[in-house]
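User: Run a structure prediction on this.
Assistant: Running it now.
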Amino acid sequence: MTKKKLPEWAPENAGKEFASSVMPGVKIENKLKKKVVKRPQLSIDDYYYGILNQNRVILSKAITLIESNNTNHIQKSQELIKKIIPYSGKSVRIGITGPPGAGKSTFIESLGLFLSKNSLKVAVLAIDPSSTVTKGSILGDKTRMELLSREDNAYIRPSPSSGTLGGVAQKTRETILLCEAAGFDVILIETIGVGQNEITVRSMVDFFLLILLPGSGDELQGIKKGVVELADLIVINKADGDYKERASITQAAYTSALRLLESPTEGIKPKVMTSSAINHIGIENVWSYINEFMIHIKNTKIFEKRRNEQMLYWVNSMLEEAILINFFNNPKIKELKKELDTKVLNAQITPSNAVFALLEEYFGNK
């Protein structure tokens, strides 16, 4: 019997790994050696010029760099941010939120396609929830936005929330700056959709859009009041087929409710619109409203004020984070906390007493 010749691309020991996997105890020496190719490290200038030249590969690597918790990477990323800040700030920043199942990804794809077809460069920063157990994320937004991912004028970057409150990733602000420096006209930030904790996204965008489902207006229990109060526009999505009439009822309910709430943006009363993202209906009207909104806030200096507030909020949030890290990494605090935790569990002291003791230990030595 003639031995079957392996194809040219197949290694000499093809099939042996399979044999050893189905026959435990059979050891077959693997003669193949993987050749490790060490990739050259990019310099700050490589990142800087790559971003300004709108190189998507360099941009993705730069975002990966700023998302890293490696001490060397953090220092390098801050140097990069400092260099590109003068080239940022020219985009329209739009935060898009809503409860799970409202069709956020479909809506964003439809809006992104509309913008792309109208010669605008759009970047989608999609935040996926991280597992509280494994700390991992699915990061499947490129799969969900398949049509948009093929557009030359579009860029989709999924990032894990890493447990950060506010429904946004820890480094979303830095990512926005990188995308703006890379020439994107519109930045769409899709948040997790977990309700009231998404207030953080309001602090980093010019326009806040809330997407709801038909029927979520029943007694206004569809989503937390706190998020509704922050919305510049509410869109009732999936207004098609049997849900079209229900969407109109929901629209009327929220329109009435908004009359009782204070406007999040001076001089503009939030509006409620309907759309069918899957059928691309109502998307153009949404963008027209956003355009009118942006013209108003720029003419009335609200835009400049809001951008300044965003920068200061960024400083304060980073300061809070740095203080927390410094506090919990303090050796004396670690030791004292173990002792106090035991006393709290044994009802020897109250939780409040434990907190005061920790603060006294920390600030008393400063």
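Confidence is low (pLDDT under 50) at residues 6-23, 130-141, 161-169.
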